[in-house]
Transcriptional regulator, BadM/Rrf2 family (Pedobacter quisquiliarum), 290 residues
Amino acid sequence: MAIFSKTCEYAIRAVLYIAHKSTLGIKVGIKDIAAGIDSPELYLAKILQDLSRKGLINSVKGPNGGFYISDTSLARPLSDIVEAVDGNALFTGCALGLKQCSAVNPCPLHNQFKAIRDQIYQVLNVNTIGTFNEELVNGILSLKK
Amino acid sequence: MAIFSKTCEYAIRAVLYIAHKSTLGIKVGIKDIAAGIDSPELYLAKILQDLSRKGLINSVKGPNGGFYISDTSLARPLSDIVEAVDGNALFTGCALGLKQCSAVNPCPLHNQFKAIRDQIYQVLNVNTIGTFNEELVNGILSLKK
DNA sequence: TGAACAAAAGATAAAAATGTCTTTTAATAA
DNA sequence: TTATTAAAAGACATTTTTATCTTTTGTTCA
Ligand code: FES
Ligand code: FES
């Protein structure tokens, strides 16, 4: 098992790709995005529809249409994407699947995993969608392969 | 998405339950385990068959039979269970699903998630199957609800 | 206007994870 | 030895996740 679902992996990579293009003033089509992050085009389309409905990204139809992202959305944390796609089980759920994570009735891993969960949330909350644009432009960071 | 698959959650809870009973010198049947960790009995049976084949736990058939765990297995780290069930994607895979996690071709989250991955491994490697027995006996820790 | 373009929406399909049922095998004890 | 017990094994079913296909809606531009 990976940390995120496949859907969420695609979602984060795609949003970062769109963000990167958006700061260059370019709207980008689904075909381009799918190629840019190496994901199945039609599946990704579904994911982006969902993110668009939820207001994380924007889109326009027709010629010269495509996906883009507003400056205010650029400032949103990555945790917003994760929460929209995978929910918040990663941030609040019990590591061993107990119905309720709590210090009152803790599972054996409670203390140590609470710290890890908090660190995961911290990383995803501190880093915004726009955080990585410079390194993406410079080709230091990768979204495919 | 949770950190572990449902299968892995059941596996860890069940192994800790068996370990707890084993240190009391008791072999325990599938029905008892399933009740003790609140999991579907027949699904858990499949999981334990697998762990038994892989040598993490032991079993005997017939009257007074059931599952138990050897002292040497009690000393094995929890990471062995996770690796047996979920593989090692959690420990070595790219957070964003790139085919290969590497510092040469890093995804945007590489550095920060490498640290988190290492911490997860650390926790699971330091804690053995037998680590929690005392607190389980004392009822301080919980494996169900 | 209307032709072309591109995302949205809805319907299916395939694969993987989770859960259940039935039969078989092995151990124990009477 | 035979009956009973309990796990192992194999087959099957359901649900969720991932992926694809088709039709519709909205936008742009000639
Ligand atoms: S109770 Fe399991 S992580 Fe908190
Ligand atoms: S490349 Fe993504 S976590 Fe290392």
